[in-house]
Amino acid sequence: MTPATPARIRALLVALTAAVAATTASTASATPANVTPACGAASPGFARCLSLVRTDIDGGRGVRGPNAAGTTAALTSLPSGYGPADLDAAYNLPSSGGADQTVAVVDAGDDPKAEADLAVYRQTYGLPPCTTANGCFGKVNQQGQSAPLPADRGWGAEISLDLDMVSAACPDCRILLVEGNDASVANLSKAVDTAVALGATEVSNSYGTAEANGLQSYSASYAHPGVAITVSSGDYGYGVPNWPADLTSVTAVGGTSLSRAANARGWTERAWGNAYGGAGSGCSAWVGKPVWQTDENCPGRMVADVSAVADPLTGPAVYDSYGGYAGWVVIGGTSASAPYIAGVIALAGNPERYADASYFYGSTAGLNDVVGGGNAERVDCGGDYQCNGVTGYDGPTGNGSPNGLAAF
């Protein structure tokens, strides 16, 4: 594929890739101790999940589920972090809909407690059961079979986050967990194709790697007419875009910091960017500018398109008893926003609109314009919209976050 940008721009972005990698390495020891990436760094040909786990708070607060003593506590209060009702209120969403939709989440490796942990989350928040027995939940390998399932790849917390966020957005949707053999680009892409073949109407992908030459050979797996495919924009702020979020056939989902406020909405949002990470944004060197994107300072595909809460400091509650955690935790990252937006698309029931993200560019009246904040903690973009939350379109939050279903 011919690069979409002039050679000098491509060279600059390659340099930024190196800068981001170097900065990530140099700041690893400076990362605050109370936020931990759920997955390790991606090696060439592999992706990493994009979830950030809070480890400094007691997520349980006396809820049902295993406590430190291994017993079950009584339900005395809801967990720390936002639950489905909070997110419904923040994004002006109905609590029902989407019963004819199947949202697939694609992850690496097996989580043997995925269904059981999902049951705890849904019971705690009064959501209808979603189980294998009632036909709501399914788990398959990348070939689409229930056995044999792949080995654990350390993505347990990521899997729980994905399932819980889809549930929060669309409690009536069916959920399909497709587990890749590992986190290789080839196997995750195969898992996406399998999800579509099994009838998924939306497919969420909370993973990625820095865009590079050669990845375009997997593009077809992320382009399925009639199926909405969402991808996390990344957790490392402005720089080289995250693949496959840079593809024009997907909805690239950025991230915000979401807080309650004494205003008409009752909530306020800013572009997410702090010492813990930042919503990924950037100008593609390999993917051309789609006709539906008109931002001025990027000659290629600009990431992101739309957004939702991702800051781990204002993150959702998640129940995970397998991924190295003891139950209730708070998890952020754009691994939270991508499955949530997939669930919102399913809630509205119009996945055929999303052969690309163009619908969001013509429906901005149905989105909260996220103004303020920025993601240039590591690499500055000179105050440009590419790394700052500005009026109208910007890189970290795209066209904004859901305000009801009008934009969906």
UniProtKB/TrEMBL annotation:
Listed InterPro entries: Peptidase_S8/S53_dom_sf, Peptidase_S8_Ser-AS, Peptidase_S8_subtilisin-rel, Sedolisin_dom, Tripeptidyl-peptidase_I
Alphabetized UniProt keyword annotations: Hydrolase, Protease, Serine protease, Signal
Domain called Peptidase S53: residue spans: 81-408
SUPFAM superfamilies: Subtilisin-like
Family matches, as PROSITE patterns: SEDOLISIN (PS51695), SUBTILASE_SER (PS00138)
Signal sequence segment: 1-30
PANTHER family the record matches: PROTEASE S8 TRIPEPTIDYL PEPTIDASE I CLN2, TRIPEPTIDYL-PEPTIDASE 1
Protein name per its UniProtKB record: Peptidase S8
Species this chain originates from: Streptomyces hyaluromycini
